[in-house]
Amino acid sequence: MALNIADLFEHAVDAVPDRLAVQVGEDTITFAELERQANQLAHYFASQGIGAGDHVGLYSKNSIEHVIALIAILKVRAVSINVNYRYVAGELDYLFDNADLVGLVHDRVYADLVGQVAPKFEKLKTIVAVPNSLEPDDASDVSAYGGVLLEDAMAGQSDVRDFGERSADDIHIIYTGGTTGFPKGVMWRHEDFWRVLGGGVDFMTGELKGEFDQSKAAAEGASLITLPLSPLMHGGAQASLLMHLFAGQLTIMEPKFDPVRTWELIDEHKVQMIFMTGDAMARPLIEAYEEGGFDGQSLFAIASSAAIFSKAVKERWMAKFPNAVFTDSVGSSETGFQGTGLQDASALSTDGPVVTIGHGSVVIDDDDNILDPATDVGKTGRTARAGHVPVGYYKDPVKSAKTFIEIDGVRYSIPGDYARIEEGNRLTLLGRGSNCVNTGGEKVYPEEVEMAVKGHAAVYDVLVVGLPDEKYGQSVHAVVELRDDASLELDELRDYLRAHLSGYKLPRGLTIVPQIPRNATGKAQYPQAKEFALADRDGKE
Questions:
Q1: Which residue ranges form the domains of the chain, and what is each CATH number?
Q2: What is the rounded CA–CA span in Å between residue 127 and residue 112?
Q3: Are the beta carbons of 128 and 105 closer than 8 angstroms?
Q4: Distance CA 52, CA 167 (A)
């Protein structure tokens, strides 16, 4: 039994070949068409010497071509590497090097950046350019660095499925910004990824599914129409896509989040389930809905994960969709699904998402003792998962040893999220124990931003903190100590940082202080810096 991601997709193709698999904008593709085109690209990869264990980057906005490339990579037992399309050249340098890319599929509009970065890496020899959904007519030259267009790569290639046996032990990698400041490649066995992120286990009962259970259910029932709102470059959206492909269901995506467009899609296609990233998406969506003009009542499942879905915004949604099921899900790239909570309008928490503890999940205190949900109600600890957990971080044994820990002979994944145990086998998620800033679902590590800010001539010292933000959950805020006789405005700082950091990492606020708070050994005092930032912001409002 090969519990391999590519095999699971192919089972769905065999079960429902003529059913629509993916829609992006007006473009659609059936399972059979997706299979044929992925086979063609996979044969091209094989002709270039790409095979089992080789790493191929996916540097693209949401598009059907992105999905074709993902499936093609998996078919030849290569490893897809998700690349954040917001990265600037320095960040791409790091990722291409850290991930040991031998291949790359990129949106053609990114040709200039690829041209700057790709030639630095001798192993990176196979580069395929695909159309960008928002700029499909872009004609950037890709030949200077040996790139080929998707249609040329696929031309003349076989569309037959003849790739040989695969293994449940094949590795699937999700790169996450995590809490280290640099992306980390989380290595999953295919079977383990499927079990905790691809629907290979019943999330409510913990019952393991068989290899053909999802495809058999697809053949027997109608297709669910789903709309994940996050980009496929994020592990959560990729997992959602794969889970619904395995089940023969239609996934609708957009290359750019737009609340009005989202409601248009929901009404036009009678979307039944949406996945969103907390208030950053939920707030503009409900505001657009409240302005009128949309029905939206085909929705029966509204799910949020990866960022705060606040009580106030939930209440507005629940008032408009009283018959829908609302869920907050807990998990990470290092653990997969850890728990979900059905949200009751009469019992919403202002502290954080309240979820039922998932099967295999536990809470561990700071002394590595496993807490008992029945007797340790009210205690706080780190969430952890046993069973189907990642192999580790790619090329990082030190961080792997800190995150993947053995306790009493059992191996746990402990990424650092804290939670409080509640009655009824539930948890209130309190957030990452580090100083990581979660802004609209994007994780920003303060030290990375601080390093960039310190490069500005006017800056003597800096700490970066996250402040509460209605739209994004948290916003990045810089607390700066200036050099003597220097001055600095927020816009000037942001303009300087654009050459060094992605846009979502740029500070949205700036507080000037006489001296950065540090202790006698020079260790940063982040709580005090946050107090300075809040007082400054509140004083300006």
A1: 31-189 (3.40.50.980), 256-432 (3.40.50.12780), 437-540 (3.30.300.30)
A2: 13
A3: yes
A4: 10
- Show the tokens assigned to 222: 């109608």
Q: Torsions phi, psi of 133, nearest 5?
A: -60, -30
Nearest to 108 by CA among 87, 132, 91, 84: 132
CA distance 95 to 210: 36
- Residue 278 φ/ψ region, left for φ over 0, alpha for ψ in the -120 to 50 degree band, beta for the rest: left
CB distance 510 to 478 below 8 Å: yes
**Cα gap 90→502, rounded to integer Å:** 10
- Which residue, among 448, 285, 423, 270, has the nearest Cα to 356 in the 3D structure? 423
The predicted model scores a pTM of: 0.82
Q: What is the pLDDT along the chain (541 residues), one digit of tens a residue?
A: 579 999 999 999 999 999 999 999 999 999 999 999 999 999 999 999 999 999 999 999 999 999 999 999 999 999 999 999 989 999 999 999 999 999 999 999 999 999 999 999 999 999 999 999 999 999 999 999 999 999 999 999 999 999 999 999 999 999 986 434 578 999 999 999 999 889 998 776 778 899 999 999 999 987 789 999 989 998 888 999 999 999 999 999 999 999 999 999 999 999 999 998 877 788 889 999 999 999 999 999 998 876 667 677 888 999 999 999 888 776 677 776 655 655 555 555 544 567 788 778 899 998 999 999 999 999 988 889 998 999 999 999 999 999 999 999 999 999 877 788 999 888 877 665 567 788 888 878 777 788 788 889 998 888 999 999 988 899 999 999 998 999 999 999 999 999 888 999 999 999 999 999 875 445 678 889 999 999 998 887 6
Q: How far apart are CA 541 and CA 533, in angstroms?
A: 13
